[in-house]
Design brief:
Distance between the termini: 58 Å
Shape: elongated
Order of helices and strands: HHEHEHEEEEH
Low-confidence stretches: none
Strand order of the largest sheet: 2-1-6-5-4-3
Structural class: alpha+beta
Largest sheet: 6 strands, mixed
Radius of gyration: 16 Å
Number of strands: 6
Oligomer: single chain
CATH class: Alpha Beta
CATH architecture: Roll
CATH topology: Nuclear Transport Factor 2, Chain: A
Strand content: 35-45%
Amino acid sequence: MPHEPTEVEAVQAIVARVAHHIDAKAWTDLRALYADRVTVDYRSLFGGEVEERDAGALVESWRAVLATVSTQHLLGPIDATIDGDRASARCHVRAWHCAGGLPGGHEWVVAGHYSFGLRRIDGRWAIDAMRLDTFHQSGNLTLLADVAAARAKAGAG
């Protein structure tokens, strides 16, 4: 008989689903994991600033850039804590990206650490903050830009 997940298990499942939904290109399911507004910190990977984004626009930006990129995000272990209607989760990540026919190579791997903030909204947990701390990258560091350029060139031709 299945058991009712604990709050910690529920938060861990939300974080694990982020990786599963991105890799499966399940964009509607991915969007459902997020609050309406999300604070996103990818400074360690792309530079720039911490951004507060509309969750729908955030997921759409991932869909646009990853539509033709194969990915596999490996997470583990997910350390989650609960404090009332707030939760936090941290885990290691290894993200593999692959797209053929690019001048800089077909693979890009990012190793790092994710931190997520979640809050309870209408009885469910939703991600409202995420930060990536990048430890290492290898392969084609411009893979996403190369994919975008190839897509633009194909659209112009």
